[in-house]
Every structure is written in C-alpha cells, then in structure tokens.
Amino acid sequence: MYNSALRITNNEDEAQDVLQDSFISAFENLASYRGDSAFGAWLKRIVINKAITRISKRKMERLPDDENWDVKQEEPTDLFESFPFTVEKVKAAINELPDGYRNVLSLYLLEGYDHSEIAAIMNITESTSKSQFNRSKKKLKEILELKMI
Boundaries of CATH 1.10.10.10 in the chain? Predict the structure, then answer.
C-alpha cells in the first residue's frame, strides 16, 4: 500500500500521510465494505484515491488539451533484448515525469489498472488516460536517453 502511495505522490512524507489517512478512512468506513472484492483490493483503492486527491491539491502541471493531439500507437518490440538501464535508473526517471504522466504510467504498468479504471479514478476520459500513457512512455524514453549521454 505504501509503495502504491509513493509511486503516485512521489514524496515519502506524503505517501506516509496518505497511508495513514487511508487506514483511518478504511476503519471509519468498515461498515461500507460489502465484500464484493478482496479486502486488500478495497483498501488499495482507498489508498490510490487518497493519493490522487493529495496530488490534485498540489499545483499540477497543465498539459495541453488532449483533443488536439494525434497519438500514434507504437509497434511492440522486444525492449529487454538490449536494455541498458538498471531498475534504479528507471525508477529515478519515472520520478522525473510530471505528476499526470507518472500517475497514469504507474496505475497502468505497476498497479495493473486498465484505462477505463484509470479514467474513473483520476476523473479524466479514457482517451486522455491512453494519450497520457503514450506521452509518458515517450517522455520516459527521452529522460533515459539523456542519462545515457
């Protein structure tokens, strides 16, 4: 739960606060837990929602209007064949992404949510989630390439 909060907030103190707020909220709303999903999944959703709420209170970097962008899908390739980066370098590069990009990337790749779920969590459209994911991959690649120089 802490790692999920940390990936979204990108700040250890805020992640700890989010985790504490989430456990308090879960305890206070335990009666509303219906058992439709595993308790851990219910709690994780609370943590993610609290983390997103926390960063939305920060001044978020404004992204261009998504309707004006033509995002092309990239052809899948075997990225691990000659991958020159360590896990630490990739984590550091992810932390350099703007909040919106980092959150969509983290929710999709690390937390396993699909774009419709991310759209609901972050209160954005599904197409915005997809385009931010594609832009985050491109930006992450740029950051990693700069670190190779």
Answer: 78-149
* Alpha carbon separation from 106 to 53, 100, 119 (Å, rounded): 16, 10, 13
Q: Is 1.10.1740.10 the CATH number for 1-59?
A: yes
pLDDT at 67 over 60: no
Q: CA 38 from chain center: how many Å?
A: 21
Measure the CA–CA gap between 102 and 140, rounded to whole angstroms: 9
CB atoms closer than 10 angstroms to residue 49: 16
78-149 sits in which CATH class? mainly alpha
| Rounded percentage of the chain residues whose pLDDT exceeds 90 | 44
Token pair 């990009």 is found at: 101
Provide CB contacts within 8 A for 22, sequence distance 6+.
Answer: 1, 5, 43, 46, 47, 50
**pLDDT at residue 131 in the model:** 94
pLDDT tens digits, 36-53? 888 888 999 999 989 988
For the full predicted model, state whether its pTM sits above 0.90. Answer: no
